[in-house]
Specification:
CATH class of the largest domain: Mainly Alpha
Strand content: 5-15%
CATH topology of the largest domain: Transferase(Phosphotransferase), domain 1
CATH superfamily of the largest domain: Transferase(Phosphotransferase) domain 1
Number of domains: 5
Structural class: mainly alpha
Strand order of the largest sheet: 3-4-5-6-8-7
Number of helices: 43
Distance between the termini: 25 Å
CATH architecture of the largest domain: Orthogonal Bundle
Shape: flat
């Protein structure tokens, strides 16, 4: 785009004003521009669309390239008192490879604050200016107390982007530590602030990629601010790749702090920032960098980073006191962070920080081998006073023959335990062998014995176990639990619960209230009760298990973690804020004490599912990605664990309209379950149905319907092999898109049965509220307005009950939409508009489909109140948002609804040709994607017929 300086100045001013508006208000503001400003609307729209996008690199390549024609030299520099946008330059703060930073002050009479104004070098190409725009976009999404804030952004009079950042009066981290002669503990605390900021950026899928002390300023109060996201990169599928844009001026990184994979130009993940932060920590703690060079050249440094072993920090430092403090834990922590292979470093910056915190608390760190001697030393250090008071007694016990006595007692205890375990295993094995032998003897004919089903054999075992093992209670509990698990696998949960209840009775009879065995039996019972009518028994059971573990002093065992997990599971639907916090605690527990256990995956999934309930989709995605990572570390068992983790991840991605990523996750989940479970396993069938829904939502109708039909055929061939709960779940998944495809009555039948079940199982829950809202929407589409009104009220009350005091507007978007939909259908469009007007503007900024649907609903209500111009504008905004999605992943039902809204508005304005064209586009979409009996499709056909056309030919929807 070629424009003169005055036009560029005007564009910059308009862009400033647009960025100050909530995203939901920008389309109307753009529509209102007139005169010369109207000619800038396409450019402004494109800039704003790019600013809202997560896929910065690919999209920034297509930003407008501005070229001035006013004769100014590209090489002219800047000086104090020059004005850039609304800012007067005061003095140069610094100059780097990517631009200059000036201390500046706003000079237009508004808020007077000093800022750090970032400007590109005047010799930059447009591609490097685009990189600068990316930093503006990334920083706008990073609101954190340890990240320098973004105040303003725009274009200067030469068309170059600038950013006004929080001006931090501070020193670089290494300089601050050196000048203040801080002890190691204080330096670690500052590093933890940095880690918190980096972990926050990672949770927003942002890699920094240029972590170094100079980008970490410390204020006089000891607060850290992380700066310079100039080469930061947004992640997709946990990695970031170099592109033509980021490579336009060669590698933009600080070599001394770059990771080996960064040097090699490989895809980057969070592990790269872990490495760079490890280098910073090494330098801050040891007073020197990890690599000693002879020649000091860049090539030699690259060779060292990619090939040389990292020395121990304690061996590098010249400070004797620091050397003593670094030996042991801190050396191990730094070595873990600086491993060459990204897969063997800390799994996240958060994990790195947690190990530092463990060290500061005096707890064992994960970077060191978990030996008994190491843990004993840690205990002694944490409990110096108590240990000192008993030192003489310990010395007497350990002295002389006491050592031999103690060792002998330990050996006897170990041998006794081994004998008990062997005896119990032998007892259990004997019972199972006897079970098969008895089955053969009970049958008069061998063929009849061979035909005994697994269910019948289980029933025989369940009937005999208590009598057969009455003298071996621990073996009895083990067999009861094993048979219970087998009943669960057959979908016979009621039978499983009965056996688990018997196991708890045995545990209570033979083990005291302070015995962990009792807690173990109770927690197994709780796990089976979850999501069954008996779940009302769970709270007192959890309290009993907790009391047993507390009395036994078990605070770090697996059973303690299982208690926290089951508590989170119980609260998952009714009180998701409690579920979220408890699941987070469970994940932290297993990371710290049992990182190799599969319960870490379970806890992370629960943490993500709780956030899905509150529509915090981006945060849920972070948890699910962590669950996927933990699943991949499960070795041979990884495929089984990955099924649920990847399915959760796909649903979170789909909720954010990241459809390509969602499909990839669901297809990988399906591949794993087919390999592990086979074609007809319930998990395989449900995963197919979820993939089918993703395909139907995004316009791959034929493929989605074919998947649904295949699942239906598999179930119909052997319906008795699947439990009732599976049939309910499968039916729900199969009608998830029915209302959108014009068959609301199909959805209504299934949802009514689903709601009856949920009211019994999960009263006052988010899942019940969601099903009631979906039924209300189906009834509105069917014209059952009175029924829908009560159902909307019920759904709203259920949702409010489960919020636990949270009033996050994101959780309410679909409820406001359906409330407005009902009001419009009931003949009260003014009320619908009032509901929509009350939606907080910040709730419309989230990256999901609800804001688009709300805009379509607004268009329909505006038309019914006679505000046809506004209605047409709202419908066009909805269409523009839909068309901004990747072209290969449209949302046909949403687009058809928006075209219908636009057609009705144009017809009311007397624009018959425009209305005819919009109806034709809607009908083309409905003919391709709707059910053949769709009432909405029939309505579009009638509307076109009334306008004098049948639209027999397909119409391109985009």
């Amino acid at each position: 785009m070629t424009m003169d300086a005055a036009t560029l100045q005007r564009l910059s001013l308009l862009l400033d004003r647009a960025l100050e508006l909530p995203p939901a208000e920008r389309p109307a503001w753009l529509d209102a521009l007139d005169g010369d400003d109207a000619a800038l609307v396409p450019t402004l729209s494109e800039l704003l669309a790019r600013a809202a996008s997560k896929e910065t690199d690919d999209l920034l390549d297509r930003l407008p390239a501005f070229t001035t024609v006013d004769g100014e030299s590209a090489g002219e520099g800047l000086a104090a008192n020059d004005v850039v946008g609304a800012y007067r330059l005061i003095r140069l703060l610094g100059r780097g490879g990517m631009g200059e930073v000036w201390l500046a002050e706003r000079d237009d009479g508004s808020v007077r604050r000093k800022v750090a104004l970032k400007l590109p070098h005047v010799s930059w190409s447009s591609r490097l200016a685009d990189r600068f725009v990316r930093e503006r976009e990334i920083l706008a999404a990073l609101e954190h107390p340890n990240v320098a804030r973004l105040y303003d952004a725009g274009l200067d009079r030469r068309g170059r982007p600038f950013m006004a950042l929080e001006y931090v009066e501070g020193k670089p981290l290494d300089e601050f530590c050196r000048d203040a002669a801080l002890p190691v503990e204080a330096r670690l605390r500052l590093l933890l602030q940095v880690a918190e900021a980096v972990a926050f950026a990672h949770s927003r899928l942002v890699l920094h990629r240029d972590l170094k002390p100079g980008n970490m300023l410390v204020t006089a109060n000891g607060d850290v601010r992380l700066l310079d996201f100039g080469i930061a990169k947004l992640m997709e599928a946990d990695t970031a790749r170099e592109t033509e844009l980021t490579g336009a001026a060669g590698r933009a990184l600080t070599l001394e702090y770059a990771s080996p994979e960064q040097i090699r130009g490989e895809p980057l993940g969070t592990a790269s920032d872990v490495y760079s932060l490890g280098v910073v920590a090494f330098e801050v703690l040891a007073g020197a960098r990890p690599y000693r060079l002879k020649r000091g050249s860049a090539a030699e440094l690259e060779e060292a980073i990619t090939g040389d072993d990292v020395p121990l920090a304690s061996a590098v430092t010249r400070d004797d006191a620091a050397r003593k403090r670094l030996r042991g834990d801190l050396d191990a922590i730094l070595q873990q962070a600086l491993r060459k292979d990204p897969a063997t470093r800390y799994v996240s910056v958060d994990a790195f920080a947690q190990d530092i915190e463990r060290h500061l608390r005096g707890d064992p760190v994960l970077a060191r081998p978990d030996s008994r001697g190491y843990r004993l030393r840690k205990f002694l250090l944490r409990n110096r006073l108590a240990v000192g008071a008993t030192a003489a007694v310990l010395a007497a016990v350990v002295a002389g023959a006491g050592v031999a006595v103690w060792q002998a007692s330990v050996a006897r205890a170990q041998a006794s335990l081994a004998r008990k375990e062997a005896q119990r295993a032998s007892t259990v094995q004997g019972f199972l062998i006897d079970l098969f032998r008895t089955n053969s003897h009970m049958q008069a004919e061998p063929l009849r014995a061979q035909q005994t089903t697994a269910r019948e054999l289980l029933d025989i075992g369940a009937a005999r176990v208590s009598e057969a093992l009455k003298d071996a209670p621990d073996s009895e509990m083990e067999v009861l639990n094993t048979l219970s698990d087998m009943y669960v696998q057959l979908g016979l949960r009621e039978k499983a619960i009965a056996l688990q209840r018997r196991s708890v009775e045995v545990a209570r009879r033979t083990h005291g209230p302070a015995d962990p065995v009792r807690a173990d039996a109770i927690l197994s019972f709780v796990s089976t009760l979850q999501e069954t009518p008996g779940r009302s028994e769970i709270p007192p059971l959890l309290a009993e298990a907790k009391a047993a573990l507390d009395a036994a002093g078990e605070t770090t065992t697996f059973l303690r973690g299982a208690l926290v997990v089951e508590t989170a599971r119980y609260n998952k639907y009714e009180r998701f804020p409690v579920a979220r916090d408890t699941a987070d605690a469970a994940a932290a527990f297993f990371r710290q004490y049992h990182p190799q256990r599969g319960s870490l995956v379970t806890a992370l999934r629960l943490a993500g599912q709780a956030r899905m309930q509150s529509r915090e989709f981006a945060q849920a995605e972070v948890q699910f990605r962590a669950a996927v990572d933990a699943s991949r570390l499960r070795g041979a068992a990884a495929p089984a664990w990955l099924v649920g983790s990847l399915t959760d991840l796909g649903e979170a991605q789909a909720a954010q309209m990241e459809f390509a990523a969602a499909e990839a996750s669901l297809r990988e989940a399906l591949a794993h379950t087919l390999r592990v479970n086979g074609e007809s396993h319930p998990e395989s069938l449900l995963t197919r149905l979820k993939l089918a829904n993703a395909l139907l939502t995004t316009g791959r109708t034929a493929e989605g319907l074919a998947l649904q039909a295949a699942v239906r055929a598999t179930i119909d061939r052997a319906p008795a092999r699947y439990p009732r709960t599976f049939h309910e779940n499968a039916a729900y998944q199969a009608v998830a898109t029915a209302t959108a495809r014009g068959r609301p009555q199909d959805a209504a039948d299934v949802l009514a049965a689903d709601i009856a079940s949920l009211r019994a199982l999960f009263p006052r829950s988010t899942v019940l509220a969601a099903s009631e809202l979906a039924l209300a929407e189906a009834w509105i589409a069917m014209g059952k307005i009175a029924d829908a009104r009560q159902m909307v009220a019920d759904a709203t009350a259920q949702r409010k009950s489960s919020l636990g005091g949270s009033d996050d507007p994101r959780a309410w978007l679909p409820y406001w939409r359906v409330q407005a939909q009902w009001a419009r259908a009931a003949g009260d469009p003014a009320r619908a508009l009032a509901i929509l007007a009350a939606v907080p503007a910040d709730a419309l900024q989230w990256h999901d489909v609800e804001p688009i649907s709300l805009e379509t609903e607004r268009a329909q209500a505006l038309r019914l109140t006679g505000r046809n111009d506004e209605a047409a504008a709202a419908a066009r905004r909805a269409l523009a948002a839909l068309h901004a999605l990747p072209a290969t992943h449209p949302m046909p039902s949403k687009e058809a609804a928006a075209w219908d809204a636009l057609a009705a508005a144009e017809l009311s304005l007397g624009h018959q040709d425009e209305a005819r064209s919009a109806y034709a586009r809607a009908l083309a979409l409905r003919r391709e994607h709707d059910d053949g009996r769709s009432a909405m499709r029939a309505e579009d056909e009638r509307s076109l017929a009334a306008l004098g056309t049948t639209a027999t030919a397909p119409v391109q929807s985009r």
